[in-house]
Design goal:
76% helix, 22 helices, single chain, mainly alpha
Length: 501
Amino acid sequence: MPRTAATPVTIALTVIAGTLMIGIDMTIMNIAIPQLSQETGASLPVIQWTVTGYTLALAGAVPATAWVISRFSARRVFLTTLGIFTAGSALVAFSWNVESLIAFRVLQGLGGGFVLPAAMTIALSSTPQADRGRVMAILGLPVLVGPVLGPVLGGVLIDTLSWRWMFLLNVPVGVLGLALALRNLPRLPSGPVPLLDVRGLLLLPPAMALLVLGTSFAEDNHMIWMVLTLSTGLVLTAVFFRHAQRSAMPLLDVRLLRRRLTGAGTIILFLFSSGYTASMVLLPIYWQVVRGESATATGLFLAPAGLAAGIAIQISGRLIDRLPPIRVIGTGLVIATLATAVLMLLLDTETPAWQLVVLWTVIAVGAGFTIMPTTTIATRSLEGQEIPSGSTIVSLISQVSGAICVAGVSVLLAAQLVLRLPAAADGGVGSLYALPPRELTELAPEIAGALQIALCLPVILTAAATVVALITLRNVPAPQATQLPGDTDSQLSTDQDTATH
């Protein structure tokens, strides 16, 4: 008897089993940096490459995903690269020195970079347009909740077992994901295989890698190198966009951004994800350096936000299929912007911890009502061979936006620390972790003040995302009126004009 085809929800749940640990691994290593530095004897800038190398490989792999999926199928790419990520996790856990640790983290990132767009391609291709909000809500759990839970899981494992268990846990989860994928993921119909855009391949992956690399230079106070790498990355990105506009078969079809909702959604995602990711970087520094909390305690302070974000995603995913986008996304943006502004004002040494936990949880709820609903409207109209490029664009936005804004807040934080504490901050932000507890207690008010200034940038970016949403989404009706199979932007405009009159 032939096996019944898996439903879109089953497919989405299946790819979550393969992508959850990838989202967690984006942030889980941040909390282990001090212990790894002590255990390996390596300096903090060298250990930081366990994070930088992972994100660098992740960002460098993503741009080629659309072509690889078209060439080999999304299912095959998902299975193969999930296997690479799982094997890389095992190798990281058994690494014998800092060099092998960094190398295997890069291998992990290469696998993870292909998995996320492939998972989104499979889920979107298997789901009717009108139901994509619900499916994207499920897919959003690893993307939004994973990075929040990373410090929680990492803190518990470091304080109770060893940092190696952060990666050993990936192995059974990855094997389970592979088994479920073999059983449930469909073999999607294949279209014409495009020729490899060699010029695009020489432009976009290096551009993304350079943009991420600039983050590490910002954290180490290497401002000249940061400016050079970020500038070069931006120039290469601009050259690629110009090339892609003229190419018949570009590595990534950026012409999709000409569609109103796809383009608007991408801008909103870029601005909001930048601010939200940067905030996630600053909070662990606050708890561990200013408040002197352990890795476990820091994780627990951040844990409620992960739970709240997961619940918010499920609610917003259903609402975005029924309500005008501005009601859902606008609500999330306003909540997140106001809460981030209040958090910035209260991020000192005197504010009760519970108030800061509540504020961060509210910000996570706002993110839950923003990120995946915006991704839904940006990808809802995509069909067939457009889906790999659309999925890849969304994945790139999350990587690049975070990298650029993290570099920005790192520069602000480093500059403030040098201004306030020139002797204590010579080694950059990482040097603060090595200060004796008594000295940290004395310096805590100044460090908290520096963090408040750095948090200004996330506030500005989330506010800018709110303005863009209000301008571009205010007249967009509920999806039932517009999002039918075969819809185009011209049809959308017609529907809006009809509704207006």
